[in-house]
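Q: Is it fine to ask for two folds in a single conversation?
A: Yes, each is treated on its own. Send the first.
Q: Here.
A: Result:
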Amino acid sequence: MKKLMLLTLIIASFDIYAIDFVYRVDPNPPDVIFRDGFSLLGYNRDLQQWISG
Protein backbone atom coordinates (compact mmCIF):
# COMPACT_ATOMS: atom_id res chain seq x y z
CA MET A 1 0.00 0.00 0.00
CA LYS A 2 2.88 2.37 0.77
CA LYS A 3 4.37 1.76 -2.67
CA LEU A 4 1.04 2.57 -4.31
CA MET A 5 0.74 5.82 -2.36
CA LEU A 6 4.32 6.78 -3.22
CA LEU A 7 3.75 6.03 -6.90
CA THR A 8 0.55 8.10 -6.87
CA LEU A 9 2.33 11.05 -5.29
CA ILE A 10 5.19 10.85 -7.78
CA ILE A 11 2.83 10.76 -10.76
CA ALA A 12 0.73 13.61 -9.35
CA SER A 13 3.83 15.75 -8.77
CA PHE A 14 4.82 15.79 -12.46
CA ASP A 15 2.28 18.53 -13.23
CA ILE A 16 3.45 20.67 -10.33
CA TYR A 17 6.85 21.31 -11.89
CA ALA A 18 5.73 21.56 -15.52
CA ILE A 19 7.96 23.78 -17.64
CA ASP A 20 6.24 26.78 -19.24
CA PHE A 21 8.80 27.39 -21.99
CA VAL A 22 11.13 25.15 -23.95
CA TYR A 23 14.01 26.74 -25.84
CA ARG A 24 15.68 25.34 -28.94
CA VAL A 25 19.12 26.33 -30.14
CA ASP A 26 19.18 26.95 -33.89
CA PRO A 27 21.93 28.55 -35.97
CA ASN A 28 19.43 30.40 -38.17
CA PRO A 29 18.53 34.03 -37.44
CA PRO A 30 15.04 34.74 -36.03
CA ASP A 31 13.66 36.18 -39.29
CA VAL A 32 14.45 32.93 -41.14
CA ILE A 33 12.84 30.84 -38.39
CA PHE A 34 9.68 32.99 -38.37
CA ARG A 35 9.50 32.80 -42.17
CA ASP A 36 10.41 29.13 -42.76
CA GLY A 37 10.09 27.47 -39.34
CA PHE A 38 12.60 25.10 -37.77
CA SER A 39 14.51 22.71 -40.00
CA LEU A 40 14.25 18.98 -39.35
CA LEU A 41 17.27 17.12 -38.05
CA GLY A 42 16.22 13.98 -39.92
CA TYR A 43 13.25 12.06 -41.28
CA ASN A 44 13.58 8.83 -39.30
CA ARG A 45 10.45 8.37 -37.16
CA ASP A 46 11.51 4.95 -35.81
CA LEU A 47 12.69 5.70 -32.25
CA GLN A 48 14.39 2.35 -31.69
CA GLN A 49 16.36 2.66 -34.94
CA TRP A 50 17.26 6.27 -34.15
CA ILE A 51 18.62 5.31 -30.70
CA SER A 52 20.69 2.44 -32.07
CA GLY A 53 22.21 4.70 -34.72
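Q: Second one now.
A: Result:
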Amino acid sequence: MPTGDTKNTSGIWKVFMKTEKSFSRMLPEWSEKVVYQVEDHRASEQPGDLIYGTTVMMPGKVGNEFFMTRGHQHQKAECAETYFGLSGEGILLLESPDGDVEVREIRAGIMVYVPPYWIHRSVNTGNTDLVFLFNYPSDAGQDYGIIERNRGMRKRVVTDGTNGWELKDNEDSVKFS
Protein backbone atom coordinates (compact mmCIF):
# COMPACT_ATOMS: atom_id res chain seq x y z
CA MET A 1 0.00 0.00 0.00
CA PRO A 2 1.52 3.34 -0.97
CA THR A 3 2.07 6.03 1.63
CA GLY A 4 2.90 9.64 0.97
CA ASP A 5 4.31 12.83 2.38
CA THR A 6 4.18 16.41 1.13
CA LYS A 7 6.58 19.13 2.25
CA ASN A 8 5.75 22.79 1.77
CA THR A 9 7.93 25.83 2.37
CA SER A 10 6.51 26.53 5.83
CA GLY A 11 7.26 22.93 6.86
CA ILE A 12 10.92 22.87 5.84
CA TRP A 13 12.08 26.50 5.88
CA LYS A 14 14.84 25.75 8.41
CA VAL A 15 16.84 23.80 5.80
CA PHE A 16 17.52 26.99 3.89
CA MET A 17 20.42 29.27 4.85
CA LYS A 18 19.74 32.59 6.53
CA THR A 19 16.07 32.12 5.79
CA GLU A 20 14.49 34.56 8.18
CA LYS A 21 14.57 37.51 5.74
CA SER A 22 14.07 35.49 2.56
CA PHE A 23 11.29 33.42 4.08
CA SER A 24 9.43 36.37 5.63
CA ARG A 25 9.37 38.05 2.19
CA MET A 26 7.94 34.84 0.69
CA LEU A 27 5.37 34.11 3.41
CA PRO A 28 2.38 36.00 2.05
CA GLU A 29 2.52 34.21 -1.28
CA TRP A 30 4.42 30.97 -0.64
CA SER A 31 3.82 29.75 2.91
CA GLU A 32 2.03 26.64 1.68
CA LYS A 33 3.83 26.25 -1.66
CA VAL A 34 4.67 22.59 -2.15
CA VAL A 35 8.42 21.95 -2.38
CA TYR A 36 8.28 18.18 -2.85
CA GLN A 37 6.00 15.16 -2.62
CA VAL A 38 7.05 11.60 -1.83
CA GLU A 39 5.08 8.42 -2.41
CA ASP A 40 6.57 5.16 -1.21
CA HIS A 41 5.62 1.51 -1.23
CA ARG A 42 6.51 -0.72 1.71
CA ALA A 43 5.83 -4.42 1.30
CA SER A 44 7.21 -5.00 4.79
CA GLU A 45 9.90 -3.76 7.14
CA GLN A 46 11.57 -7.16 7.27
CA PRO A 47 15.31 -7.32 6.58
CA GLY A 48 15.92 -8.11 2.92
CA ASP A 49 12.79 -6.34 1.67
CA LEU A 50 12.88 -2.98 -0.15
CA ILE A 51 11.09 0.34 0.08
CA TYR A 52 10.67 2.03 -3.29
CA GLY A 53 8.85 5.08 -4.54
CA THR A 54 8.90 8.41 -6.30
CA THR A 55 9.76 11.96 -5.37
CA VAL A 56 8.38 14.95 -7.29
CA MET A 57 10.31 18.10 -6.49
CA MET A 58 9.05 21.47 -7.69
CA PRO A 59 11.37 24.15 -9.10
CA GLY A 60 12.02 27.23 -6.98
CA LYS A 61 14.35 29.01 -4.61
CA VAL A 62 14.36 30.56 -1.15
CA GLY A 63 16.63 33.56 -1.55
CA ASN A 64 19.39 32.26 -3.82
CA GLU A 65 19.17 28.66 -2.60
CA PHE A 66 17.40 26.03 -4.72
CA PHE A 67 14.51 23.94 -3.40
CA MET A 68 15.82 20.79 -1.73
CA THR A 69 14.73 17.89 0.42
CA ARG A 70 15.39 17.84 4.17
CA GLY A 71 18.08 15.25 3.57
CA HIS A 72 19.02 12.34 5.80
CA GLN A 73 21.33 9.52 6.71
CA HIS A 74 19.91 6.07 7.26
CA GLN A 75 19.36 5.03 10.88
CA LYS A 76 21.15 1.86 9.87
CA ALA A 77 23.95 3.89 8.35
CA GLU A 78 25.44 0.83 6.64
CA CYS A 79 22.49 0.84 4.20
CA ALA A 80 22.87 2.24 0.67
CA GLU A 81 20.20 3.85 -1.53
CA THR A 82 19.68 4.35 -5.27
CA TYR A 83 17.93 7.08 -7.23
CA PHE A 84 16.86 6.94 -10.88
CA GLY A 85 15.95 10.13 -12.72
CA LEU A 86 12.68 10.22 -14.67
CA SER A 87 12.47 13.91 -15.66
CA GLY A 88 13.81 17.33 -14.81
CA GLU A 89 17.29 18.38 -13.73
CA GLY A 90 18.87 18.33 -10.34
CA ILE A 91 21.66 17.04 -8.19
CA LEU A 92 22.17 14.78 -5.25
CA LEU A 93 24.38 16.43 -2.63
CA LEU A 94 26.33 13.83 -0.64
CA GLU A 95 28.56 14.17 2.42
CA SER A 96 30.70 11.42 3.92
CA PRO A 97 31.23 10.96 7.67
CA ASP A 98 34.73 12.42 7.11
CA GLY A 99 33.30 15.59 5.56
CA ASP A 100 34.02 14.79 1.90
CA VAL A 101 31.38 16.37 -0.36
CA GLU A 102 30.30 14.98 -3.72
CA VAL A 103 27.66 16.06 -6.21
CA ARG A 104 25.88 13.65 -8.56
CA GLU A 105 23.63 14.73 -11.41
CA ILE A 106 20.01 13.53 -11.47
CA ARG A 107 18.11 13.65 -14.76
CA ALA A 108 16.13 11.27 -16.97
CA GLY A 109 17.88 7.94 -17.40
CA ILE A 110 20.63 8.55 -14.80
CA MET A 111 21.08 6.16 -11.86
CA VAL A 112 22.70 7.59 -8.71
CA TYR A 113 24.16 5.41 -5.97
CA VAL A 114 24.34 6.67 -2.37
CA PRO A 115 27.05 4.75 -0.50
CA PRO A 116 26.51 3.50 3.05
CA TYR A 117 27.09 6.09 5.80
CA TRP A 118 26.74 9.10 3.46
CA ILE A 119 24.31 11.90 4.30
CA HIS A 120 22.35 12.98 1.23
CA ARG A 121 19.71 15.36 -0.09
CA SER A 122 18.32 16.09 -3.53
CA VAL A 123 18.16 19.57 -5.04
CA ASN A 124 16.08 20.76 -8.01
CA THR A 125 18.41 23.00 -10.05
CA GLY A 126 16.12 23.15 -13.08
CA ASN A 127 13.03 25.07 -14.17
CA THR A 128 10.65 22.09 -14.21
CA ASP A 129 9.65 19.38 -11.76
CA LEU A 130 12.47 16.99 -10.84
CA VAL A 131 11.04 13.47 -10.70
CA PHE A 132 12.98 10.40 -9.60
CA LEU A 133 12.57 6.87 -8.27
CA PHE A 134 14.32 5.71 -5.11
CA ASN A 135 14.85 2.44 -3.27
CA TYR A 136 16.58 1.34 -0.10
CA PRO A 137 16.41 -1.55 2.39
CA SER A 138 13.12 -1.64 4.27
CA ASP A 139 14.83 -1.76 7.67
CA ALA A 140 17.22 1.16 6.92
CA GLY A 141 15.19 3.86 8.66
CA GLN A 142 15.94 7.55 8.20
CA ASP A 143 17.62 10.05 10.49
CA TYR A 144 16.30 13.43 9.34
CA GLY A 145 17.65 15.20 12.42
CA ILE A 146 21.32 14.61 11.67
CA ILE A 147 21.53 17.61 9.35
CA GLU A 148 19.80 19.94 11.80
CA ARG A 149 21.93 18.72 14.74
CA ASN A 150 25.05 19.56 12.76
CA ARG A 151 23.73 22.92 11.51
CA GLY A 152 23.37 21.83 7.92
CA MET A 153 25.52 20.08 5.37
CA ARG A 154 28.98 21.52 4.62
CA LYS A 155 27.88 22.84 1.21
CA ARG A 156 24.80 24.61 -0.06
CA VAL A 157 23.52 24.70 -3.64
CA VAL A 158 22.87 28.26 -4.79
CA THR A 159 22.29 30.04 -8.08
CA ASP A 160 25.46 31.14 -9.85
CA GLY A 161 23.76 34.37 -10.95
CA THR A 162 23.18 33.18 -14.50
CA ASN A 163 21.28 30.03 -15.38
CA GLY A 164 23.27 27.52 -13.36
CA TRP A 165 24.24 26.57 -9.84
CA GLU A 166 27.31 26.48 -7.63
CA LEU A 167 28.32 25.12 -4.25
CA LYS A 168 28.76 27.54 -1.39
CA ASP A 169 30.41 26.78 1.96
CA ASN A 170 28.05 26.58 4.91
CA GLU A 171 30.04 28.34 7.62
CA ASP A 172 27.61 27.19 10.33
CA SER A 173 28.07 23.47 9.64
CA VAL A 174 30.01 21.20 11.98
CA LYS A 175 31.37 17.72 11.27
CA PHE A 176 28.68 15.04 11.40
CA SER A 177 28.73 12.88 14.47
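Q: Anything structural to flag on that second result?
A: Two points. The chain is about 10% helix and 45% strand. Residues 19-30 form the longest helix (12 residues).
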